[in-house]
Write a structure and sequence with these properties.
By secondary structure, this protein is of the alpha+beta class. Helix content is 20%, strand content 16%. The protein is rod-shaped, with a radius of gyration of 60 Å.
């Protein structure tokens, strides 16, 4: 009997479900009932308004009951221990500049390294030559106004000059004289030979312009002064001596049409290295700088080289003018050598 009862009891005994406990040791049902009783006893929770707002949605921005936890209405004032802010406060803060970088140049520190002693650099150009050239140009520029106002517009009176430019000039190794040019050129190409070295300048025309130069040249019968003021070579006694143009410029050294300024040169018809006189206006014409040097200078050096080699050379230079122009339009250079060979060239006098 006892075994049957025990078995019946064990079969009829109800199975109690397992209780779930919270972290506080209470089941959810008991925790809910305990909280409900606490709400009934506490008068602060009796008038609490239950919001119908869904759980998890943020409160509206119009809600002003900040600080309330339970039982607060929309008219409940904000209770805070901090005073209310009326306006934002601007705080000023001083910003320190960054620390300057440490200088890497050793010459800027408290104990700079002294610079090495070096000798003064030597000039690579000839300063004296440049200064002299500038001085020569300055003299020409200073007279530019005077020359343009008087010389270019006025014909020189030969009576005011030392030489009689209304006459021609003849010079050889023994004599030098002026004469009235009534006949043709006294120096002819067919008569040019050894021992007959001579030069001939034609007189100035009615406008005071040079008309031409002729020469029969042999080595040793003429000479000239170089840039250092020395004789260029050894020669026999002669009256044919080549010279350069004079500085400062005076009335005796100004050809018609020359106004200086570096644009025009006082060019020789018969070159200095060929025995041409740089003081005689019958041998000077205004030439543009590039025409005088190096263009005309190249032909003159070639003829001088022939004479130096022992050749007898007949040489003539004729300027050509347009109307009353004081500046020649072009020059005609002609030469003939007794050893054979002759040539003629036209040089246009243009800037």
């Amino acid at each position: 009997m006892m075994s049957s009862r025990a078995s019946s009891r064990s079969t009829l005994r109800p199975v109690t479900p397992r209780r779930v406990r919270t972290s506080a040791g209470r089941t959810p049902g008991r925790a809910a009932r305990s909280q409900a009783r606490r709400f009934q006893r506490d008068p602060a929770y009796t008038n609490r308004t239950v919001s119908s707002r869904p759980v998890g949605r943020p409160a509206s921005s119009t809600r002003t009951n900040r600080g309330c936890t339970y039982g607060c209405s929309s008219n409940t004032a904000y209770r805070s221990t901090n005073p209310a802010r009326t306006s934002p406060t601007t705080r000023t803060r001083t910003t320190k500049p960054p620390k300057p970088p440490t200088p890497q140049n050793p010459n800027r520190g408290p104990r700079p390294t002294p610079a090495p002693t070096r000798p003064a650099p030597k000039p690579r150009v000839d300063i004296s030559r440049i200064q002299q050239r500038s001085l020569d140009r300055a003299v020409a520029v200073d007279m530019n106004t005077v020359l343009q106002a008087t010389v270019q517009q006025t014909v020189l009176d030969p009576g005011d000059l030392v030489a009689d430019y209304s006459k021609a000039l003849y010079a050889d190794t023994a004599q030098r004289y002026e004469f009235s040019e009534e006949s043709s050129n006294p120096i002819r190409r067919d008569d040019c030979a050894k021992g007959k070295t001579a030069i001939h300048y034609r007189p100035l025309d009615q406008y005071g312009r040079a008309q031409g130069a002729y020469a029969c040249l042999n080595r040793g019968d003429f000479n000239y002064m170089n840039d250092r003021g020395d004789w260029a070579f050894t020669s026999n006694p002669t009256t044919i001596v080549g010279t350069g143009t004079e500085f400062p410029i005076s009335w005796d050294h100004i050809p018609q049409g020359y106004y200086g300024g570096g644009i025009l040169h006082r060019g020789h018809l018969l070159a200095r290295q060929l025995g041409g006189d740089g003081d005689d206006l019958r041998n000077l014409v205004p030439l543009y700088a590039d025409v005088n040097t190096p263009l005309m200078r190249g032909y003159e050096d070639a003829i001088a080289a022939r004479i130096k080699n022992g050749e007898t050379v007949y040489y003539q230079v004729i300027p050509h003018y347009e109307g009353k122009s004081r500046i020649p339009d072009y020059l005609t250079l002609s030469w003939h050598s007794q050893r054979g060979g002759s040539a003629s060239v036209r040089l246009d006098n243009v800037p």
